[in-house]
Amino acid sequence: MKPLILALPAALLLAGCMNESATLSLDGKDQSLTLQAKQPWFWDQRVDLELVMSRLPDCQRRSRLDAAMPAEIALEVFRPEAGEFAEPILILRQGGRHYALGLANCELQAFKAAPQKPGALLGAFRMQGQRLKFNAAPPPAAPQ
């Protein structure tokens, strides 16, 4: 009975916490982009956001993004046209911030200014109810 009484306060402390993730598979099963949203303390409304880029077996890297309120989580993913940048990258937009995510080395770098041509929108990570989801962008319309 005593262990149960001791575990109850810990359970109450963790009851309001969030630990969600959503994944975008890129070019096959060995390459993916995962966004993790964690709320470590129930009294803190903001959630910590971490991005995990994985290109197995060559690299896997975790990078921190700006914390956000759950309802404000929005990370858009763009794929620039081939040759637009020196190496293959994805462009990520979180609010007014833009990031370059290297697909060869899994490295995340912030842009100093918004890129002129971010490329085709692949989709966006957003909260849907209590779940974090990646919503793919609709395919571009066929030329007529």
Please provide a written account of the structure:
Strands 8-7-6-5-9-10 form a six-stranded antiparallel beta sheet, with no helix packed on it. It is mainly beta and 144 residues long. It has one domain. It contains one helix and ten strands; from the N terminus they run αββββββββββ.
Keywords for this entry:
single chain; 144 residues; mainly beta; four-stranded antiparallel sheet; 10 strands
The arrangement of helices and strands along the chain is HEEEEEEEEEE
Total count of strands: 10
Mean pLDDT: 85
Number of helices: 1
Uncertain runs are: 8-14
Largest sheet: 6 strands, antiparallel
> SS-based structural class?
mainly beta
| Neighbour order of strands in the largest sheet | 8-7-6-5-9-10
Say what oligomer this is: single chain
Helix content: under 10%
Radius of gyration: 18 Å
| Integer count of domains | 1
Briefly say what this structure is.
The protein has 144 residues and is mainly beta. 9% of the residues lie in helices and 49% in strands. It has one helix at residues 2-14, and strands at 19-25, 31-38, 47-55, 59-68, 74-79, 89-94, 97-102, 108-110, 120-128, 131-136.
Question: How is the topology of this model organized?
Answer:
Layout: H1 2-14, E1 19-25, E2 31-38, E3 47-55, E4 59-68, E5 74-79, E6 89-94, E7 97-102, E8 108-110, E9 120-128, E10 131-136
Antiparallel strand pairs: 1-2, 2-3, 3-4, 5-6, 5-9, 6-7, 7-8, 9-10
